[in-house]
Design a protein that fits this description.
The chain is mostly beta strands and about 120 residues long. It contains no helices and eleven strands. Strands 2, 4, 5, 6, 9, 10 and 11 form a seven-stranded mixed sheet that branches. A four-stranded antiparallel sheet has the order 1-3-8-7, with no helix packed on it.
Length: about 120
């Protein structure tokens, strides 16, 4: 599975962005998909995840109520809608897809939020 993340960029505080993660190679319909982020000087942290077949979703407390993860199985794509962004959301965002012991990562997309 190859994952291609896109949609990052620069935005002012309070703004919104939508990240996309397009999968190729095989369908990720039955995968757990998620987003993680890594800010400069910090470890990679969990942001959101969605279970297989558009089941339950979970969010980090820091983004709950502001971010929404979704998936389009027909397009084999995962999205992260981000709103009410703050400078603390500045990071490289990575998508992940996993099933069983297999775990795949996208290349990351930079999100920069200015105050």
């Amino acid at each position: 599975v190859q994952l291609q993340a896109s949609g990052g960029g620069w935005v002012q505080a309070g703004g919104s962005l939508r990240l996309s993660c397009a999968a190729s190679g095989r369908t990720i319909r039955n995968y757990v998909v998620g987003w993680f982020r890594q800010a400069p000087g910090k470890e990679r942290e969990f942001v959101a995840a969605n279970s297989r077949n558009s089941g339950a979703t979970i969010y980090a407390d820091s983004v709950k109520g502001r971010f929404t993860i979704s998936r389009d199985n027909a397009q084999n794509t995962v999205y992260l809608q981000m709103s009410s962004l703050t400078p603390e959301d500045t990071a490289v965002y990575y998508c992940n897809a996993r099933v069983g012991w297999a775990s795949y990562w996208g290349q990351g997309t930079q999100v920069t939020v200015s105050s």
